[in-house]
Amino acid sequence: MKKLKVAMLTLALGVGLVGNSFAMGDAPEKPYKMEKMAEKHERHLEKLKQELNLTDEQFNQIKEIKKQEKEEIKNFFAKEHKNPLLEATKSGKFDKEVFQKTMIENTKKMSEIKAKYLEKMFNVLNEQQRQKFINHMKEKMEKMHEMMMNH
Hints:
Blueprint: H1 2-18, H2 31-52, H3 56-79, H4 84-88, H5 96-124, H6 127-149
C-alpha cells in the first residue's frame, strides 16, 4: 500500500509539473480552464528561468521539451490511459486486483514519460542549475506531501 501511495504522489507531482489538466479529468472542451492552465504553466517556466538563471537558449530548449512532454502525456490520456474504476467494474462487481493493476500500469507509463523528459531537461542544465532544480523539486514534493497529509 505504501508503494501505491508513493506512486500516486509521484504521479500527482509529475502531472502537476506538466501543467496538464487532462490528468485531472478536465475535458479539452473547457477552453477557459485550458487557457488558465497554459498561463500557469507559462508563469511556472518563467519562474524556473529566473530561479535557475537559464540562458535564453536553455529556456527555449526547456520550453520545447515541456511542449513535447505535454503532447506525449495528452496522447497517453487520449489513447492508452485506462480508468481504473471502469476497468475494475466491467463484470458488474468491483475487482480490487484489476483496479490496482490498472493504477500501477497508468502510473508506470506516466513515470516513463516523466523520466524521459526530465532526463532531456537535465541534459540542458549545468551542474549548478541541476542542483537548484533538485532543491526546487524537493520543496514542491514536500508541499505536495504536506497538502496530501492535511486532507
